[in-house]
C-alpha cells in the first residue's frame, strides 16, 4: 500500500518553531532519498529539504540554517524541524520520495500539513 501521512503543522508566530512528521509506507521510504516540499498559494510546489538513506542532507537557500530534516529508518518516518519561522514559510508542506512517487503516470501526494506563520 502506498501511503504518506504528514502531521505537525499549525499556526505559529514569526520566529517560532514547528516540527513536522511524515509516516511513509515502506514501499515509498525504504532506501530512497526523501524530501519535504511546500506549496504556497499561487505558487508551484518546491523542494525545501532532502535526505538520503544514509543521512546526507540538502536544503533550499531560503531555509538553510533554519530547517533541519531527519529520518528514522526503523519507523519509516521523516521529520522537519523548522526554527525561526518567517511569514514567507506559510504553505502546505508535503513529504515524498525523490523523485516523487508515481502511481501509473501521476505523482502521488499525501494530504499535506498546513503551516501558517503570522507576523
Task: Write up what this structure looks like.
The chain is mainly beta. The protein contains 1 helix and 12 strands, in the order E-E-E-H-E-E-E-E-E-E-E-E-E. It has one helix at 26-29, and strands at residues 4-7, 10-13, 18-24, 34-39, 46-51, 57-59, 67-72, 77-82, 91-97, 102-103, 106-107, 113-118. Strands 2-12-9-4-5-6 form a 6-stranded mixed beta sheet, with no helix packed on it. A 4-stranded antiparallel beta sheet has the order 1-3-8-7. Strand 7 and strand 8 (77-82) form a beta hairpin. The longest helix has 4 residues, at 26-29. It starts with a strand and ends with a strand.
Q: Which strand-content bin applies to the residues?
A: over 45%
How do the SSEs run, as a string of H and E? EEEHEEEEEEEEE
- The helical percent reads under 10%
Structural class: mainly beta
Number of strands: 12
So what's the overall shape? Answer: globular
Q: How is the biggest beta sheet arranged?
A: 6 strands, mixed
Q: List the uncertain runs.
A: none
Q: What's the gyration radius in Å?
A: 13 Å
Number of helical segments with 4 or more residues: 1
| Strand order within the widest beta sheet | 2-12-9-4-5-6
Please describe the topology of this protein:
Elements: E1 4-7, E2 10-13, E3 18-24, H1 26-29, E4 34-39, E5 46-51, E6 57-59, E7 67-72, E8 77-82, E9 91-97, E10 102-103, E11 106-107, E12 113-118
Parallel strand pairs: 2-12
Antiparallel strand pairs: 1-3, 3-8, 4-5, 4-9, 5-6, 7-8, 9-12, 10-11
